[in-house]
Amino acid sequence: MQKDIIVIGAGPAGFIAAGRGASQGASVTLLERNSRPGRKLLITGKGRCNFTNDTDVDGLVAGMPGNGKFLYSAFSRFDSYDLRAFFRELGVESKTERGKRVFPASGISMDVLRALVMYAKKSGARLKCNSTVKHVVARDGKVQGVIVSAVNGQAQFLRCDAVIIATGGITYKATGSTGDGFRMAKELGHNIVPPRASLIPLETIESWPRDVAGLTLRNVQATLMVDGCEVGSEFGEMLFTHFGVSGPIILSLSRAAASAMIHASPKIALEIDVKPALSHEQLDARILRDFQKHGGQTIYNSLVDLVPKHLIAIIVQEAGISPAKHVSQVTREERLLIGRTLKKLTFHVAGLRPTDEGIVTAGGVDVDEIDPSRMESRLVKGLFFAGEVIDIDGMTGGFNLQAAFSTGYIAGESAAEVR
Ligand SMILES: Cc1cc2nc3c(=O)[nH]c(=O)nc-3n(C[C@H](O)[C@H](O)[C@H](O)COP(=O)(O)OP(=O)(O)OC[C@H]3O[C@@H](n4cnc5c(N)ncnc54)[C@H](O)[C@@H]3O)c2cc1C
Description:
Radius of gyration: 25 Å
Mean pLDDT: 95
Number of helices: 14
Number of strands: 21
Distance between the termini: 9 Å
Strand content: 25-35%
Low-confidence stretches: none
CATH architecture of the largest domain: 3-Layer(bba) Sandwich
CATH topology of the largest domain: FAD/NAD(P)-binding domain
Shape: elongated
Bound molecules: flavin-adenine dinucleotide
């Protein structure tokens, strides 16, 4: 007998779940609160959509520090290779960039969204926008349907055999992910691990990062220190902003910073090695060469080949030397100090940016209550979860979208079989 499935939320997880369920013969309705689907997907990867990471299943699991092991089945069933093939079939070729980040070859996230809309439609799923699901209804431990409120405010009960909750997390609320899925799952008896933002920019105590807002540093090594102990280190790109710091490596380290701040108020510092490819000795030799080359000039003018202009004044100031000093007057000790500052430019974290600015949500529906091979609730028959509503979260690099797609794929397939 044909199964009726309702999927709540037309983001990446909801689309693939709907399409997969329909392609397995189920009658699928995809309900979206917004007037248009996939609003968050469109802003991913700065509008370019880094939809997966070119790595194997173990690599995908490692990229999800938030309950990666729970995702082992899902990634094994539908991995990065499968996802790229899936999009290729829909006409979206992909390209791999630094850090094995995979993007559509066009570099346009809309192409990914269009492909998902086409997939769902071709499979026979119906997309209904302006439809906010208020509650999932279950009786005797089994799903009965959902209560939907349409744009005119009228509530309606829609009967179905299975519901897939794919409502996302609690950040970037303007895109539609307001945490409704957590509330609905809780009403049905699920434990919700307190949601919090992860991959979130950091505010700094020092004001100088704000003075160089807009400056991007590439190929640097950032190390996060909590109460004097190293808790993480990342190599890559970071950005100074009007509030502090952001960019891929800062976002990745922010997860550990956020965890450290949950129960305590630790002293958190970031140490930036601006020249990680050079040892202290090599760096000093390089500075000496530059000083000789620019003899008779100020320190400021003599470091332009080595350090971005805007950072020179900061480095020299942090080293306690006047940037206007002529290189001929710089002592060996001062030169070594400039080198040491470049290898360990330090500032302190005042806090996280507001939750809404988090790239992903950590916390959510407790993974102990979900069958990892089906994405079905262990408490309510016919209830499934997909994507960020689950207590999973990953690093930057395409892991979060891959997780949304893999869990959505399995949820759609399993919901179509529900007895
Ligand atoms: C700025 C930014 C950049 C990002 N870049 C990347 C990236 O490059 N790579 C990467 O892997 N990840 C990235 N992410 C994370 C990624 O976007 C999310 O992990 C992913 O979108 C989660 O997919 P989802 O389908 O679970 O939820 P969402 O994409 O949030 O979709 C949920 C949908 O459910 C709808 N909905 C919610 N409640 C209801 C309701 N009650 N009724 C009906 N509909 C409802 C919402 O309107 C929304 O359309 C980024 C996130 C942000 C904010």
